[in-house]
Amino acid sequence: MFSAPRLAFARATSARVVSLAPLASSVRMTVRASSRWANVKKGPEDPILGITVAFNKDTDARKMNLGVGAYRDDNNKPFVLESVRRAEKKIAESNPDHEYAPIVGVAAFNKASAELALGKENPVFKDKRITTVQSLSGTGALRLAAAYLGRFYKDHKVYMPNPTWGNHIPIFKDSGCEIAEYRYYDDKTCGLNLEGMLADIKAAPKGSVMLLHACAHNPTGVDPTLDQWREISKACKERDHFVLFDCAYQGFASGNPEKDVAAVKMFIEEGHNIGLCQSFAKNFGLYGERIGALSFVAKDQAEAEIIESQVKILARPMYSNPPVYGARVVSTILSDAELSALWRKEVKLMADRIITMRASLVEKLKALGSKKDWSHITNQIGMFSYTGLSEQQCDKLINEHHVYLVRNGRISIAGITSKNVDHLAKSIHEVTK
Length: 433
Hints:
- With about 425 residues, this protein is α/β, with parallel strands linked by helices.
- Helices cover about 50% and strands about 10% of the residues.
- The protein contains 17 helices and 13 strands.
- It has helices at about 5-35, 45-55, 80-95, 105-120, 125, 135-150, 170-175, 195-205, 225-240, 255-260, 260-270, 300-320, 325-335, 335-365, 375-380, 390-400, 420-430; strands at about 65, 130-135, 160, 180-185, 185, 190, 210-215, 240-245, 275-280, 290-295, 385, 405, 410.
- Helix 9 (about 225-240) links the parallel strand 7 (about 210-215) and strand 8 (about 240-245).
- Helix 4 (about 105-120) crosses helix 13 (about 325-335), helix 9 runs parallel beside helix 11 and helix 14 (about 335-365) crosses helix 17 (about 420-430).
- The longest helix has about 30 residues, at about 5-35.
- It is globular, with a radius of gyration of 26 Å.
């Protein structure tokens, strides 16, 4: 027990502490007001990351996360390719050092990535009129391309499809490029608005930049056919537009790496000197290794060397040089016939699972008696699908059925498995009937 004097002292001290509380709050407000960052407002959360946060808080056993753009196996687990495991073992056994890579990256990787996209026999290699620089995945490739265009081609607008990957716009805006859009998605058919796309390409100022998705368009999953690609190529050629391809899903879309870059090869064959941004996150499962490449096809070897010299100047203060580990993994796989064959089997396995889940979802919706036409889900390709669901329907899926997705109706097919597709079909049927 406290003595009376000590108890009185404690009460007095407590009173003084309490009385200081408003003063402390006032001091904090004053410090905040006088801070050099006082006028900086808190930025909005990334909408897709916000979906994951809400999903993680949900305790319902039926919950589904269809927002994340990363492949999952049929147990909804991350998938590490066996070809990657074997390449890692091979690399470890070679006892590699950890020295800096050159600014342009690992030479073997640059060669392998360009050849994967264009084919080893492509004349651009013989003519030495292509330059390839390793980048920090596809995002880094786009940022380097945007920085190059912002410095040397800034008087020309960069046209993007509407809609496009959410990161495209800030990447190019932050690099000083002026952004415009061309029509792409048809809300009525949940397919390609080719007529509107061609009209916008033809109406754009001569020499504009046209950003095209090479395959598995993100976020719609809607790709042009080869005949439609020819029309797009012709329209771009007539207007002397510079075409920049974003190739994030080679092999992952159809299961055939050559088929998925048919448009890229076609444009080069038809005389376009393109830019090409590649990512090896999805098709090699190397999400966290940040491995990508940026290539420019030039008019000749001298121009290719000039472009490379300027891209190096841009990269140097940005990140100095790229990481070597993932580049070693990819180049090891692509330079080894056995590992390359295994990778092709595995990337087809991933693509086939996505295609199977599309078909299964549509079949189950039909079995439930849905009167809506869901054929666009199987007509679309790649990781994502624009379902055609309204914001209100998406809200119901989230709040009533524990199915988490972007409110524009985009879903990641990779989040669907044989174990949860029934719940998804029933949920979609409930909110659309």
